[in-house]
Amino acid sequence: MKKVLYVVVGIAVIGLIAFILTNNKKKNENETEQISKTNSTVAVRIDTVKTEVPNLDYIANGTFAPSQELSFPSENSGRVIRVLVDEGDVVRKGQVLAVIKGDQLNIELSNAQAAYQNAQSDSQRYENAFKTGGVTKQQVDQAKLALVNAKARVDQAKINYGDASIKASINGIVNKRNIEPGSVVAPGTVLFDLVDVSTLKLKVNVDEQHVAGLKTGTAIKVKASVYPDKEFNGKVTFVAPKADGSLNFPVEIEVANNPNSEIKAGMYGTANFTAGAAQKVAVKTIPRVAFVGGVANNQVFVVKDGAVTLVKIVSGRIFGEEVEVLDGLNEGDIVVTSGQINLTNGSKVTPIK
């Protein structure tokens, strides 16, 4: 009797398990079907084609360079006997910076002057002798040529003797002094580095889109990174006629108002290029991220009636994260900005925020 009872209970348990499994299977199939229906569309982010006036203002960073910079060399050899300036001193053009011992140069000048006086006497003597027929015309000409050469040697000796006093050839500041009294120098030895920062040049690179509106003399507002609250006046003095390897054009901006040499050569600066009123025209734009495979491909997905169409367009200028649309889209069209990798032409989509 107990065996029969155990058999009946076992059959009942097996039947209950089978019933539960069957119900679970049906429930899973229903859920799968619902998920399948839900996932038949692709979730994407969208944006609208709009007409707006783009921001054409442009900022370019660069470094300030001195208007004049000179590594001042020696023109003669000798021993430095005096140095009259130090690093940081302001000097004027023609000011004596150092003196090189000129004893040898003085001797050379004296010898050249003596030779010149002797040549003068010879020339005069030959002139007188020629009048009485004592010498030939050729001898007179040779004496005159010797006089000219002697005069040239005197002039050269005077220049060399004058070069013993090293004089500044530009206005500026002594940035570096390479000699001390007692130093022995040779021709070409760099004695001082002079820089003129009363006027500075900010050197920046400008892309082709913005360089078209620049010309020499254009007024530009300039800032130095160390003085963020100060604004300096500048003007364009040079626009390169040829782009560099990165397709940018070197531009130089002269900054004249540098009181007390506040801006130092080598500091970072920023030039603010402002678009003129004629350039501020409303254009159609879309986000840069809307393009499939990059702006150069000129393809975007357009959403209409819950599905997408891959459209070929003509793009124009790039304004930061916005791109000008010249043809292929109308204002108000909806374009996909995220999720394009999961789309094909005709895919159903669900816009998300």
Task: Spell out the blueprint of helices and strands.
Elements: H1 2-38, E1 42-48, E2 50-52, E3 58-73, E4 78-83, E5 90-91, E6 96-100, H2 103-132, H3 137-162, E7 165-167, E8 172-177, E9 184-185, E10 190-207, H4 208-211, E11 219-224, E12 227-239, E13 248-255, E14 268-273, E15 283-287, E16 299-304, E17 307-312, E18 314-319, E19 322-327, E20 334-338, E21 349-351
Parallel strand pairs: 1-21
Antiparallel strand pairs: 1-20, 2-15, 3-10, 3-14, 4-6, 4-9, 5-8, 6-7, 8-10, 10-13, 11-12, 11-14, 12-13, 15-19, 16-17, 16-20, 18-19
Mind explaining what this structure looks like?
With 353 residues, this protein is of the alpha+beta class. It folds into three domains: 42-54 and 281-351, Beta Barrel (conserved putative lor/sdh protein from methanococcus maripaludis s2 fold); 58-65 and 196-279, Elongation Factor Tu (Ef-tu), domain 3; 72-190, Helix hairpin bin (Helix Hairpins, Orthogonal Bundle), CATH 1.10.287. It is built from four helices and 21 strands. The protein has helices at 2-38, 103-132, 137-162, 208-211; strands at 42-48, 50-52, 58-73, 78-83, 90-91, 96-100, 165-167, 172-177, 184-185, 190-207, 219-224, 227-239, 248-255, 268-273, 283-287, 299-304, 307-312, 314-319, 322-327, 334-338, 349-351. The chain has a six-stranded antiparallel β-barrel with strand order 3-10-13-12-11-14. A hairpin with an 8-residue loop joins strand 12 (227-239) and strand 13 (248-255). The longest helix has 37 residues, at 2-38. The chain is elongated and about 150 Å long. The two termini are 70 Å apart. Residues 77-196 form the CzcB-like barrel-sandwich hybrid domain. Keywords: Coiled coil, Membrane, Transmembrane, Transmembrane helix. This is RND transporter. One of its GO terms (cellular component) is efflux pump complex. Pfam families: Beta-barrel_RND_2, BSH_CzcB, YknX_C.
